[in-house]
Amino acid sequence: MRKALVVGNWKMNGTQSSIDVLMHGLMAQLAGCSSGIVVCPPNVYLDQVRKLIEQTPISVGGQNLDWHDKGAFTGEVSAEMLADLGCDFVLVGHSERRTLFGETNEDVAMKCKASLSKGIIPILCVGETQAQREAGETEDVIASQLVPVFDKLGTEAMASVVIAYEPVWAIGTGITASPQQANDVHAFIRHTLAEKDLNIANNIQILYGGSVNADNAGELFGMQDIDGALVGGASLDAASFLAICQAAVLV
Ligand code: PGA
Q1: What is the pLDDT of residues 131-153, one digit of tens each?
Q2: Helix, strand or coil for residue 56?
Q3: 62: which strand partners?
Q4: Cβ atoms of residues 65 and 92 within 8 Å
Q5: How many domains does the chain have?
Q6: Domain of 41?
Q7: Taking the complete model, does pTM exceed 0.90, yes or no?
């Protein structure tokens, strides 16, 4: 039985004071949440959040990392640094990283490997654009994003990875994939993995991301292959994020 997981991706938002308000709002109402909960603040606020979540079931994650161990990479942050700041998770290959910062599938695979080497669970983000969907290329695109990671990590290590399916056309647009559309891709991902290892495929958590909110979360979580959510905009509001966490009960 897979456990539900809800991850908040704050992107480049927040200040010390707004984060304080958000986190206290969240921590005050955790009672009805049975899913795992992760928040991914900007790096400069990781330590602030880490201190706030001590004694709570909330985990903290990074939004990105550099795969090098250390050295002359101005502005970058390594897996070891994220681990040092208490991160249990890190987002890898978010579509904004791929499109705005030119991350390749090879970079993404290296980042997953680096994060696992420091005991951090990579949340591997995959997803197709609107044009790719319309051209009938969704499964090919998803496979092309997954296979380099499988090859780099080896099948066994996939047991320690979380996958997030985020159709690019649904991110920040208010347009959510229908539960069936999302589930079809999740099932494809699971099937792709099952060709390598059935047990890992059955146990891996596959999250859906793209305009998840308090109103649509329940229906998404009701689908067989959807194990949780990667939430952007709605994770910046304590009440909305909590409502999504409360809806995350897998049947
Ligand atoms: P959104 O973002 O929920 O605002 O669409 C999701 C994400 O980018 O992870």
Answers
A1: 999 999 999 999 999 999 999 99
A2: coil
A3: 90
A4: yes
A5: 1
A6: 5-250
A7: yes
